Every structure is written in C-alpha cells, then in structure tokens.
Batch of 2 targets.
Target 1
Amino acid sequence: MALKTAEEFRESLRDGRVVYMDGEKVADVTTHPKLKVATDTAAFDYELAEMPEYRELAVVRDEKTGEEYSRYFHRPKNGEDLLKRHELMLVASRLNYTTTPFAREMIDSFNGCVVTAHAMGNRDYIERTDAYLDYLRKNDLSLAGAITDVKGDRLLRPADPKQSHPDYYLRVIDKNKEGIIVRGCKAHITSPAYLNEMLVMPCRNMTEADADYAVAFATPVSAKGVIQIVHPFDSHRGPLDFPLDIPVRSHTDSLVIFDDVFVPWERVFLCGEWQSAATAVYNFAYLHRHTAVTYHIAWVELIVGLGAAIADFNGVTKAPNIREEVTELIIYLNTMKALARASCIDYVMHGDLAIPNPVTANVAKHYYADNYHKVVKIVEDLCGALLTTAPSFRDWQNPATGNFMEKYLGGRAGASAEARLRILQALRHYPCLGTELDVNNIHAEGSLMAERLTIYSEARKDLELYKQLANYLAGNVKMSWEEYKQLCGELSKLGKGESQR
Ligand SMILES: Cc1cc2nc3c(=O)[nH]c(=O)nc-3n(C[C@H](O)[C@H](O)[C@H](O)COP(=O)(O)OP(=O)(O)OC[C@H]3O[C@@H](n4cnc5c(N)ncnc54)[C@H](O)[C@@H]3O)c2cc1C
C-alpha cells in the first residue's frame, strides 16, 4: 500500500470509534469543532511527507523492495539514524506552528516492546513485533502509546488486595486460543481519539503476584470495548483576541477505558512475563525522553523569541538586567539542543536497535522540565503587568477606546501598540503564559527589579557595616575592642527597625 495522504488519514479515523467529550458522544472526530483542531495537528505528519523538500527526511525507502514508509517506522541502527529522526521531529514541530504532530512519535512505546522481545529471546514476540511493524509501514498508520495506568493507591502494587478494586492497572482477565481479554484504564493518553492504533504496555515493574498485569499489545482504537473520554481542551484563541492568520494547533489527552477488550495473539507482545515489564517500560522511556526534549525545542524557540521581542518593544533590550534575562533564555534553549543531539551521537545499541544515550536523554528531559518554570518566570517578568491587564481586541476595535490604546500602549519609538499587544497575546495563546495570578505575583505592587533596586539602595548602610566587619577581620583596618563591640551592636540592630538610615 502507498503512503497515505492527509485526507486519507482523516478518512481512516471515521471507523466507529467511541469517543466522548464535554458530556457528549463525538460523531466524527475530524469535523468536531474542537477535535478537528487536534486531528489537523496530527494530519500535518502526513502533509509533511507530501512536501518534496522534506520527503527524504520524512520517508525511508526499503533498499530491497523499494517500498516507501514513514521514517518513524525505520528502526534506528546508529547515531545518524537517530539524528535524522531528531531532525524530522524538530522540523515537523517548527512547521506545524511549534506543535508536534504526535501522529507516530509514540512508536517509542512499540520499540520498547521490540527491545524487550529481543532481550527475552522470545521468538514468538520477535516475529509478532516484526509483523506488526510491517503492518504499520504497509498501511501507513498512526499510533498512540498507552502506558500510564490510573494506579489507585500509588504505594500499593497492582495485585495488592488492599487496592479498592483489581483494575487500577490494566490486566488480562481471560485467555483463549484466539487471544486475550483485557480490562483496565489508561490515563492522560495523548491523541488516540484521532489516531489509528494504540500500543499498550505496563507503566512499572511487576512482581510474580502481578503477572496478569504484565501485558503489552497493540489494538486498533476502534476495537470493541475501547471507550475514550477526552479532556475538554481549549485551543486558547477566543473572540476577544487579535485575529491571527495561522491555523490553531493543539492536542488533547484521553482517559482510555478497556472494557473487556479482545486482543488477538498476533498483537500480544508481553503476557505474564512479569520479569520483563520493567525492561519494556524503561526502554520506551529512554526513547521517549529524547522525543520529548526534541519537539519541545521548537516550542522553546518561540518562547525565547517572544521574550526577546517584548523586551525590544518595551525598549529595554540594552539594560543589563534584561540582557542577563535574555541570556538565560538562550542558555536554556541551547543546552536543550546540545543535550538532545548529544544523546543521539552517544547512542547505545539495544539488540539491533540504536537508542539515544539513556543518561544524556534523561538529563536533557530533566533539564528542560526542571528549568521550565524558571524560564516562564523570566518571560513573565520581561512582559510587565500588561500581559494580564491588557484590554481586549474588542476595545481595540471600539473607536471610543481604540485610539487611547494605540496612543498609550505603545513602547519604544517606532514600535506600534498593536504589535506589542500581539506579542503579549501570542504569549497568552501559545505557551499559555500570563494567568492573572502568575503575573500578579511577579508584577503587582512593583516588579522584581523594582524590589531589587529598593533593596540595594535601602541596604547601603547595612553594606557599609558588613564591609567594615570584613575589612577588620581581614586585617585591612584596625579597631579597638570598644569600637569592635560598637560595630557588633550596630550589626545586631540591622533588620530590627532600630537602625537609622
Ligand atoms: C500532557 C500530558 C500528556 C501525557 N501523555 C501520555 C501518553 O501519551 N501516554 C501515557 O502513557 N502517559 C501520558 N502522560 C502521563 C504521564 O506519563 C504521567 O502523568 C506521569 O507518569 C505521572 O503519572 P501521574 O500523572 O499518574 O502522577 P502520579 O504517579 O500520581 O504522581 C503524582 C506525584 O506522586 C508521586 N508518586 C507517585 N507514586 C509514588 C510512589 N509509589 N512513591 C512515592 N511517590 C510517588 C510522584 O513522584 C508525583 O510527585 C501524559 C501526561 C501529561 C501531563
């Protein structure tokens, strides 16, 4: 079968899947007002493969058969393959207005099963994973990865009788000649509402008692018994925003219920081998941490650009404190980029599959996530309070108020008020910065810099005393015992409201 067009991909989603959103059953995810946004976001993966200039990056040709298939379905054999995959994800995210299509990035979860099958030396699983990969390639499918269980009491194991029911982790409830029947629920699963297949695997290590929970398999999203409840995401572009001429991109996540779902044996990749559950999930995670940091680079490029642009509109680019803040943003972005690439270059082999260096890939993802809120704070600081207090586009359109906004909300000479307001809107729209509470906490009653300036000027006398102490103890100045006692007395008054400034 040939590669699918984006339209054929959309058509493949009209398959009777059971999806609920906002209290209603969704008739067609490709036309539903909200899910259409997410479907279009994923469909970009197929569009990219049709663009001549990106064809070579997005599509791989089988040397023996000449058949073409998505690069996501190519098993990386070395660092070069990993770097091409890295480049594909990054290019797709950039072109897709900074949002990853997420149509097949979750091949990471399947590759976790492949590595596990080889590590176990299990011929059945190796043959089944080979056959499934072939099926994905030939039918040019998309897939989600369903790993996270709802878990119930997190300190209890899946099979612990103290759990209030046995289905907090997905498990096998029956087996027969044809296959297995599974029951359970996976949470926060990105995009199965608008993709073809789901790869399901355990989210943790298992003990012998948990053997029924050690199960991995692939299933069509439309299989009988699969029920999705999608969270009511908002695409963050309301009627009060300045109109933008670019498509809205966004994803949503499903609570996926497996209400006694049948899975044929040829799609089962782990069943009862509890010792291998951890191998599967760790191998998925090694790959997926690299995927995550890669597609977030496109996102962070936008955040850095918006932060630098608002500083420019405010006319403060040359101020040392602003330069320092923008430099922090650049360090953040470039560290992410360097770590993501380094994890490909320093790849390790798991069987015949190259995976990004597990330590570096995890350092990259950890660095990105651990510092993200610091970066948000910097950008919100750069914006000032207007990020949250700006009047709306309707006020801009109203002749009674629009002129005042134009006159008073401009920044440096030559920068229009509209352009400045649009940068702030973009920050609210794309990375969802600037909630009232966030900005209030940074800017209300004075910005962070206003406080720092006051602290410095008010503490000058304190500093003089600290310097006297330092110079005396360093031997630079002489002091009598009485003078030293007096200095200590002055020091003890500091911060108690007794000292005169
Ligand atoms: C936007 C988004 C998209 C996602 N997409 C997917 C997806 O496509 N597929 C998928 O499978 N998952 C997905 N996830 C799920 C993600 O992997 C989980 O959120 C993550 O693993 C944490 O699990 P949890 O949310 O259940 O939190 P919890 O596990 O409940 O963690 C909450 C807190 O409790 C702590 N904790 C939990 N258990 C223990 C314990 N035993 N001992 C001590 N501390 C503990 C944690 O460290 C954490 O601090 C997504 C999540 C998000 C936010």
Note: The radius of gyration is 28 Å.
Target 2
Amino acid sequence: MLLYFDRTFTETVSGNRLVELKCEHCSGVYYYLLARVGRGAATAPYMIGQKRAAQKAKEKARRDLEKRLRDESELVPCPKCQWINESLVQGFRQTYYRGWGIGAIVVGSAGTFFSLLIALIFARDLMNKSYAVMTAILGPIISLTLAFLILGWRKLMRNRIQPNCDFPHTPIIPAGTPSALIRNAETGLFEAIPRPVEAPNERKGNGWVVFQLGLNTLPQVCCVCNDSADPKCNYPHVICAGLALSIPFCRYCARSWKRRKWKTALAAAVSLIGLGYIAVSSLNLEDLLFWLLLIGTIVVAPFFGLFIAGWKTSPFRVRLVDRSRSIVLLSFQNDEYRKILVEAK
Ligand SMILES: [Zn+2]
Ligand SMILES: [Zn+2]
C-alpha cells in the first residue's frame, strides 16, 4: 500500500477599495469602502516544496482578493434617494454561493468521466454491451443535468436578493453594510452619511459591535484594562476556516487570563470526573465496564474542562454573521473597550 501524506497551506489576505458611484435614479455621486478577505490554499505532497506551496497559497489569496474587490459589491443605497444601483445588486449577488460554480463543474465532469469509464469496463464483456451503451449515454446526461441544476439553483437563490423591491421606501440592508461617503467640496475630505435603516442583525442584543475584517481594525489597546497592547500577547481567535481575529491584550492581562483559564479548566475537569465517578458507581456495573467508563471520563474531562473554561473566562465574544463578507459581531466585558472600538470604526 502506498503511503501518502502532505501539508496544506492556507492563507488569507484582506483589503479594501474605494468605490465611486453615480446613482441611476437621481445622478447623485457617492462613494463607499468595499472590504473583502481573499483565501488561497496550496499543498506540498510528501512535505516536498513547502516554501513554494506557502508562496503559492499567498499568491492565490492575493488573486482571490483582487477578483473579489473587482467583481463584488455592497448594497449601499444612494444617500439622497435610497436607490441601490443595479451594478451593486449584481456585484452583491456574486458575493454568495461562490463555490457552487466549481461544484457544478466537478459534478458534471467527474460524473461524465466515471460513467464513461464504467461503460468501457462493461464493454469488455459481450454480455454487458447493452449496459455499456446505456451507461455511456445516461451517465453524462444525468451528470450534466445535475451540474445545470446546481447552476440554476444558484441563479434562483442569487435572484432572491432584491433590495429595491420597496423603492422609494428605505431598503433594509444587510448587517455590516458600509456607510455611504460624500466628498466635501470645500475640504476634499470624505464624510460618512449615517445609514438610514439598521439591518436586523445589528439589533441583536445590546453591546454587540458589527465588525468587518478587512475594513475595521481593533484598536491596539488591551481589551481588558485599556492599557497599550503588546502585539506579542495578542490572542489569535479563529472564527471559522480562513477567518481569524487577533484580539489585543497587554502582557499582564494575557497572563492573568491564561492563569484564570487553566484554573477554571482544572476545576471543571475535576468536577466532571467527580460527577462521572458518582454516576458510574451508581450504575452497579461489572468491574471491567466500570473502569472503562471511568477511564473514558478521565480522558475526556480535561477537553471539556478547557472548553468550558475558554467560554466562561473569555473577556470577549465573537459571533459570525456573514462569512462571505467576513462580518462578525463582537462584544467585550470591558465596556470602555467597546466604546473605543465604536469610535475607531
Ligand atoms: Zn439617488
Ligand atoms: Zn490589560
């Protein structure tokens, strides 16, 4: 048997671009900042060429970012009349179901390839000639139909995005939509126009701040004590595959959080083992089963303990709102830090 192993490198690059728009309805000129995160991955088979794979992943991420900043857009209504240009709607639709196109190609081509391969195997046996013909015809038809169905479904889902349907009433825009910017004729500076309607997600509980990776940055002050943060002590919080946030901490708070986390984890693990022991002993099991269950509890308890401790002691919370647009909701135990973040946005 051949042993195969490899290492996959994934990279993300974030960036933004100032977009200039002329309203199709009232001809007013306005701007907004489009932010996106590009992703790229490359594999080094048998760990060979790891440097090249890492470089390739970075290049792919940069190309993905360029493409996204060129093709996609945000639903920023005209600050004068609330109309959303058709080009913005089209670009916004491109933001979603991005992987479905590749999915359709894979289903169509792999299905066709394998059905032809099976037909060839059938054709070698005289008894199976009719099966061979049937597979050679039906296989590709089914695969290609499936591929077209995936593309059709994607089009249908994308076309459901109709932000102008209530025009001239103010549209409900998605959470994290950037503010429209207007250039002040005298100063030449951009001024943000407050958004007319809050997207439903943004009302989720008090204290949550909408944050877009690639556009917003976390102020480099400790999120616990507001002292200046030490970049070496920042906590890398993984939100989902390809999205991560570096939460700023000062050296002292990073250490004290770590200590608190380990203490809570230990306490939680010991309590879980104690509870497990009580539960297992109350079952009157045979010796072997008793020890197996008890050892299982002892092995699993530290992981649960760590999970509980991470959740209970964390000075911040992150909720993913929209992965495609890299939008999250953030909340901090330290309300001062939240205020600093809101001001910095
Ligand atoms: Zn307008
Ligand atoms: Zn601190």
Note: The first helix runs from residue 50 to 71.
